[in-house]
Specification:
Strand content: 15-25%
Number of domains: 3
Helix content: 40-55%
Number of helices: 14
CATH architecture of the largest domain: 3-Layer(aba) Sandwich
CATH topology of the largest domain: Rossmann fold
CATH superfamily of the largest domain: Response regulator
Largest sheet: 6 strands, parallel
Radius of gyration: 21 Å
Distance between the termini: 41 Å
Structural class: alpha/beta
Shape: globular
């Protein structure tokens, strides 16, 4: 789905772009003023306009009215830092496809506002029925569809073969041995269904397990600690990211690695800023996400990333995923 993002805050536009692109949509443009919004909508003909109601001194509802009279008219999803009820009767009868409270913007809320039938399909694997059902309800509430559940690694592989999903969420320890069945299943899926993203959940902080997962060389792999899943929106976002081919590593593991870095490690030549960017890469952040976090431009991030790739000896080869290789160097150190 082609989307135009209209908001006068650049960091929010970057966040919205990242969320939409990870959910499989295409952001065709961004605008910060009413004139830009109307010009880009006329020129780019987006299917959907994500429009902030509080656009500086402008009235977003007036922009909505102008967009609704254009041809072809895009579907408009309104955004606001205020709740919908705060607008009273002003929203009655408007031509918007939906309304989203800005702090609640996610792939699920966007799909729900548009009543989009396309939903990310997920299989959940854990030997605890309670945990499986809890994860399933949390993901379903955020616009993802749990198509199957499994209680062990073999059942998971059969479920994926029967109905290949976009992503798998799996406990690392499942029957029969209760050791590393999740990692073994991820390795098997790398051979049988490499397009399926895999997010591994663990009770223990084990950097070596995260390294093993990434060493499989397959895009779309993630490793999170169960205790860190307190923000369910971020958890659903992690599932979306591995489905989109990104790597996601629990921040607790990254912080642990920082604490044990040695002077002889391969990262010794990196500057403090380059280490900071590599840390954010290890957490699964995109260049746009890093720019927003550090309050620097995306071009500056690209420059730092290019330099750290060079210092780590990671040449640009078509068969290598340099971001994953850089994270592996980080974890190994």
């Amino acid at each position: 789905m082609n989307v135009l993002v209209v908001d006068d805050h650049a960091p929010f536009r970057a966040r919205a772009r990242r969320m939409l692109e990870l959910a499989g949509h295409r952001v065709v443009g961004e605008a910060a003023t009413p004139d830009e919004a109307l010009e880009q909508s006329a020129r780019l003909a987006p299917e959907v306009v994500l429009l902030d109601v509080q656009l500086g001194d402008a009235d977003g509802l007036a922009i909505l009215d102008a967009l609704s009279r254009s041809s072809p008219a895009p579907r408009v999803v309104l955004l606001s830092s205020r709740e919908a009820q705060d607008y009273g009767s002003r929203l009655d009868g408007i031509a918007a496809a939906g309304f989203i409270h800005k702090p609640d913007l996610s792939a699920g809320s966007f799909a729900a506002a548009l009543q989009d039938p396309r939903r990310l399909r997920v299989i959940v694997a854990d030997d605890s029925t309670l945990i499986r059902e809890g994860i399933g309800k949390a993901l379903a509430a955020r616009g993802l569809e749990v198509v199957a559940e499994a209680g062990d690694g073999e059942e998971l592989l059969r479920a994926v073969a029967a109905d290949e999903p976009d992503a798998v969420v799996a406990d690392i320890r499942m029957p029969p041995t209760g050791t590393d069945e999740g990692l073994r299943a991820a390795a098997a899926l790398a051979e049988r269904a490499p397009a399926v993203g895999v997010l591994i959940l663990s009770d223990h902080l084990e950097p070596t397990f995260a390294t093993r997962l990434l060493e499989q060389g397959t895009p779309g792999r993630g490793y999170l600690l169960k205790e860190s899943i307190v923000d369910l929106d971020r958890f659903a976002d992690a599932v979306t990211r591995v489905a989109a081919g990104e790597s996601v590593i629990d921040p607790a593991i990254v912080h642990h690695v920082i604490g044990v870095l040695r002077a002889s490690d391969p990262l010794a030549e990196l500057t403090p800023r380059e280490r900071e960017i590599l840390r954010l890469m290890a957490e699964g952040r995109s260049n746009a996400g890093i720019a927003t976090e550090l309050v620097i431009s995306p071009r500056t991030v690209e420059t730092h990333v290019s330099r750290l790739f060079g210092k780590l000896g990671l040449a640009d080869r078509p068969d290598d995923h340099r971001r994953v290789l850089a994270v592996l160097a980080y974890l190994r150190s």
